[in-house]
């Protein structure tokens, strides 16, 4: 029965989530498969999928995303390494030709990294796990975006710096697509990394994104009853992610832009529009979470 299946899934998830910790030599599971369960209806499955992801992530970084480090051989001490490095530096050519050559090599490497990362984000071939969850090529691409964003937010030191800029717009598109398997997770990752990472990447585009999120919330709140998706728990989850998680983080990242957006939205919508209530709730959350940041704008409050 369905209840037995759910119970079995919960138990299996609970008892397998520590395998990666206890058996370090085991082959890491597919990170893309794990993130596809982050919005599973069962809390046990969600917890297990996230636990397994964090256990596996440090040793499962996809090669195109992984930062390359110059590792000092174990048999070579730090002082020996410096003794070897200094003469090499002293004997290196400082001619302009040599400098230009290095710059060209760095530029080529930079372009190559960008191409590899972009190709990986858009890849969907040879994804065996898709058949296990009944997924499509769109699920493959969406899971790649979630995996990359998760590394940027939680493990920034082991992935390439440029990954954040290359994935942020893809992450926003995933939020706005209202995908029932990934959009809420995408909103959570955007919110969690907004202050530390995404804010710098987005710049003035945060204001436009704020406006889009408010419009999406209004659509979810006042959708026609004939549309089946909006009557499901999925729509409720999406709305909660936007209202309770993403919108406050965007507001705190661009307070002036937030005030400008809600002012224009309030004047442009009817008095019974959900935008009014959502704006007020967001303002209260920002006031509680970052009162000092709001101090210069008290006249607008």
From TrEMBL:
It comes from the Eukaryota. InterPro entries: ARM-type_fold (IPR016024), WDR72-like (IPR049916). GO terms for cellular component: cytoplasm. This is Uncharacterized protein. It comes from Aegilops tauschii subsp. strangulata.
């Amino acid at each position: 029965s369905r209840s037995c299946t759910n119970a079995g899934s919960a138990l299996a998830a609970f008892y397998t989530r520590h395998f990666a910790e206890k058996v370090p030599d085991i082959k890491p599971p597919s990170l893309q498969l794990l993130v596809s369960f982050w919005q599973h209806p069962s809390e046990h499955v969600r917890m297990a999928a996230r636990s397994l992801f964090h256990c596996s992530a440090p040793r499962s970084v996809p090669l195109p995303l992984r930062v390359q480090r110059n590792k000092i051989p174990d048999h070579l001490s730090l002082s020996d390494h410096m003794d070897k490095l200094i003469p090499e530096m002293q004997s290196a050519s400082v001619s302009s030709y040599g400098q230009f050559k290095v710059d060209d090599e760095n530029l080529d490497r930079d372009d190559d990294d960008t191409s590899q990362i972009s190709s990986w984000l858009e890849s969907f071939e040879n994804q065996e796990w898709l058949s296990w969850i009944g997924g499509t090529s769109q699920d493959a691409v969406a899971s790649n975006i979630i995996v990359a964003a998760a590394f940027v937010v939680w493990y920034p030191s082991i992935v390439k710096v440029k990954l954040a800029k290359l994935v942020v717009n893809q992450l926003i598109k995933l939020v706005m697509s209202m995908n029932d398997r990934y959009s809420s997770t995408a909103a959570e990752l955007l919110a969690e990394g907004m202050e530390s990472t995404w804010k710098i990447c987005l710049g003035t585009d945060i204001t436009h994104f704020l406006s889009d999120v408010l419009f999406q919330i209004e659509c979810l709140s006042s959708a026609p009853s004939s549309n089946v998706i909006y009557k499901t728990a999925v729509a409720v989850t999406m709305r909660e992610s936007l209202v309770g998680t993403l919108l406050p983080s965007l507001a705190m990242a661009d307070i002036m832009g937030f005030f400008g957006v809600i002012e224009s939205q309030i004047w442009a919508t009817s008095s019974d529009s959900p935008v009014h209530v959502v704006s007020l709730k967001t303002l209260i959350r920002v006031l509680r979470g970052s009162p000092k940041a709001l101090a210069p704008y008290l006249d607008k409050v």
